Amino acid sequence: MNKKAIFLDIDGTLVNHHGKIPDSAREAIAAARKNGHVIFVCTGRSRAEIPEEIFKMNLDGIIGAAGGYVELEGKAIHEVYIPKEEVTHIVNFFEANHIEFYLEATSQVYSSKGGKAYLMAMMNANIARYPDAKEDLERNMLSFIAHMQDEGDIIREDINKVTFMGAQLSLKEVQEEFKENFVAIPGSYGREGELCGELMLKEVHKATGIEIVLKALGIEQKDTYAYGDSYNDIEMLQYVACGVAMSNGAEALKKVADDITDSPDEDGLYKSFKKYGLI
After folding, report:
1. What pLDDT, on a 0 to 100 scale, did the predictor assign at position 207?
2. What are the pLDDT digits (tens) for 76-87?
């Protein structure tokens, strides 16, 4: 088999919804790389949000901030930043509407004043719902929250993407406010009855990051696979030769996918890698 490039979303794909990487996924990735294939995480998270556990897997690179950041073999080869005046617009709008948020840069995450408290409350609610997953949930969230910066001037020139949380507005209202330069998509987290989501620059998405990787490595589009579960995976699954949605994924994603595999906890990645002869 020719060398294939495989792109993996993190949340709900490589890791389960408690933040744990199944042993079967680790095994599948190691075997695929041994067979000569290259594997990248392709995530909406900024580099600063990616858990250390994933870096320890020594993958071939990172597409972060939903295409706004590309790293190959430990070296950044592409970064896109939101203009500072647009960051100011975002912060002012969210603060005026009492919406918590965090601004995602490559090396740091900058939070609204109530952002940390919101995330802590969300984590505690998940622990109450899934007490057996307490250790995994705390491991993934506490370190992230502790390293968020919420003091001083958070309006910066190196922001790739924005996550917002706890909005009482509709997604349509957020989209309308930022329609000129941004795409607003819903997130799969947050408290019931509240809108959470992401703001990304138009024309920047996971597929644009993949295109940059393929050009750098000289790999053809026909030799690509991608796996995801959320709205920000739609362009990625449409772009690659074989786009696979997780069974726990959004229905909108499943409609554009070439195939559907089982959830992370049901060994979805391993089964699909096996099915397509990657391992």
Report:
1. 98
2. 999 999 999 999
What string of DSSP letters covers the chain? ----EEEE-TBTTTB-TTSPPPHHHHHHHHHHHHTT-EEEEE-SS-GGGS-HHHHTT--SEEEEGGGTEEEETTEEEEE----HHHHHHHHHHHHHTT-EEEEEESS-EEE-TTHHHHHHHHHHHHHHH-GGGHHHHHHHHHHHHHH-B-SS----S-EEEEEEEEESS-HHHHHHHHTTTEEEEE-S-S-TT-EEEEEEETT-SHHHHHHHHHHHHT--GGGEEEEE-SGGGHHHHHHSSEEEEETTS-HHHHHH-SEEE--GGGTHHHHHHHHTT--
| Per-residue model confidence as pLDDT tens digits over 2-59 | 999 999 999 999 999 888 999 999 999 999 999 999 999 999 999 999 988 999 998 9
Burial (Cβ within 10 Å: 0-12, 13-18, ≥19) of residue 187: middle
Euclidean distance between CA atoms 237 and 256, whole angstroms: 7
Domains of the chain, earliest start first: 5-79+204-275 (3.40.50.1000), 84-201 (3.30.1240.10)
Predicted TM-score (pTM) of the model is 0.91
- Highest mean pLDDT, choosing among 112-126, 150-164, 252-266: 252-266
CA distances from 270 to 30, 93, 267, 277, 279 (A): 11, 43, 5, 11, 8
| Token pair 């024309």 in the structure block, residue | 203
Are 46 and 64 contacting, i.e. CB atoms less than 8 angstroms apart? yes
